[in-house]
Specification:
Ig_E-set; six-stranded antiparallel sheet; mainly beta; four-stranded antiparallel sheet; 0% helix; AMP-activated protein kinase glycogen-binding domain-containing protein; Ig-like_fold; Immunoglobulin-like
């Protein structure tokens, strides 16, 4: 799940990436905004979800995926869009365009 917060005085949005996977021991966020390098997400016990916040420039689309236990790729099931990634699967897309 994606949550976005826009700032009046900055051209950036704070995006909270939240992902639930019952059997996962670890989840990493991987996207074009972090050089496709796995970034560990923190498990929030009371929400039973892995979370990570990122500030991203506004008015752009960013591709990302979740890497579960260092082996399995998954998408955000509530992403703004999905696009083919060249590996026979889709990437999730988060848009920072103001509504």
């Amino acid at each position: 799940m994606l949550t976005k917060r826009f700032f009046k005085t900055k051209d950036e949005a704070e995006v909270t990436f939240s992902f639930s996977h019952p059997q996962a021991k670890t989840v990493a966020l991987v996207g074009d905004f972090n050089g496709w390098q796995p970034e560990p997400m923190k498990f929030v016990k009371k929400e039973c979800a892995f979370k990570l916040k990122h500030r991203l420039p506004t008015d752009k689309d960013y591709h990302f995926r979740y890497l579960i236990d260092g082996e399995v790729w998954d998408n955000d099931h509530q992403a703004d869009d999905y696009v083919p990634n060249g590996f026979g699967e889709d990437n999730s897309v988060v848009s920072t365009c103001r509504a």
